[in-house]
Every structure is written in structure tokens, then in C-alpha cells.
């Protein structure tokens, strides 16, 4: 019965609810990925962390892999589970979802491998390993490296639109993080070259030898002591070295 002559409330006019859980899961994944890769400076190590984090954080994804192409180097791969590593490895041929994603620069989706015909040899291997669905999303790292992140399901038909969105966001975020990893690796390599030059350079080399003798430490640690002193005193490294060598070389009185 309706009281007061008012029309009954139409509950069907409510706005559609947002998939809050999916948003939170994706945000948590990206945060965890950032935390896991933020200080890494080895690209292969970063790939290993990436695939393990994605496997554990994306619902209904049983395995995760990454196929990497780097200029001047053999193709690389990482897998969250070694038993499935061959699915991301190009030694078995370029005809696969990861390579399709990389070549076309677009997401490649196969939610049910039982009826898939695009990659016959790869699909046979995948099904033999228990894979029933895959999403491969291209990842742009930098001008020298590209790849694809691959999400695998162990049941057909469970990779949904939500998984496609997650894969897209994951690929975008992973590309930025992996680019930073490669940049840190380059910086570390350049720093190593500089250190090598400094270790063999005149007065700096002498100062390093003094510190090694005084502290009983290796050359790289002695160089860091010099750098710390230069930073604290706000003077050039060479000047710090000259002062130290002059001080220890000065004859002691009486």
C-alpha cells in the first residue's frame, strides 16, 4: 500500500556501482610493483620480480611471464614458474602471443586456447603445460628495449575485460619502472668507469692508498671516504686527496 498519495520509490534508477574491488586490487598491484623495483638496477632481476608480483597479485592469473627484446642482445625472458618458461622464450619460434603483441604494438588476447588457431605450435605446448588462456600486452621500455607481459590462466574463459584493463595498466607502469631500472644500470656502469679512472689517477690514487692503509679497507670503500669528505667540506675530490697526501707526507717534528 502507498501512503500519502506518493509514488513508490523506483530502486532500479540507481546509478551503476563502480568495481571498487578491481580498482583497489589494481592500485595495490602497482604499489607493490613500484616497491619491488624502485631500487633495482639489474634488468633481469627486475623482470623476475615483475612476473612474480603480477602472478601473486592479479586474481585468477595462474602464471606470468615476460618476453624481452633488447638491441644487440639475444631475446630474453622471465617466468614466474620455471615449468612454463619456454612459453615466453623465443628459442621455440617467433609465432606466439607475446611476439604478436610486440609486432602489432597492441594487446593480444586468447581466452580459450582449445579453439585457438593463430599459433598452432605454441598453443599445443601451452595446453600441454596446463595453460588455457593468455593475455599478452606490449611493454615499451626505452629506445633499446621492448617486450610483452604475459598473463596465463589455467581455465578457459576466465580472462575477462577486467583482466585486459589490468594488463594494460600493468604494462604501462612496468614500462616506466623498467626504463628507470635500465637508467640506473647505465648510471652505475658510468660510475664504475669513473671510479676505475680515479683509482688509477695520481694524487687520488695515493690518497686512496693512505686511507686503505689507515683503515684496512678495500679501494672502493676508501674512495667513498674521500667522496664523503669532499661533500662534507664542499671542495673538489682532488683537493681533498692533495690535502691528505700532503698531510701524511709532511715530516714530523722532533
From TrEMBL:
Q: Which Pfam family, just one, is annotated for this protein?
A: GAF_2
**Residues in ANTAR domain copies:** 184-245
Query: Could you confirm whether the keyword Transcription regulation appears in this record?
Result: yes
Q: Which PROSITE patterns match?
A: ANTAR (PS50921)
Sorted UniProt keywords:
Transcription, Transcription regulation
An example Gene Ontology molecular-function term: RNA binding
Q: Could you tell me what this protein is called?
A: GAF domain-containing protein
Which organism's genome codes for this protein?
Answer: Micromonospora halophytica
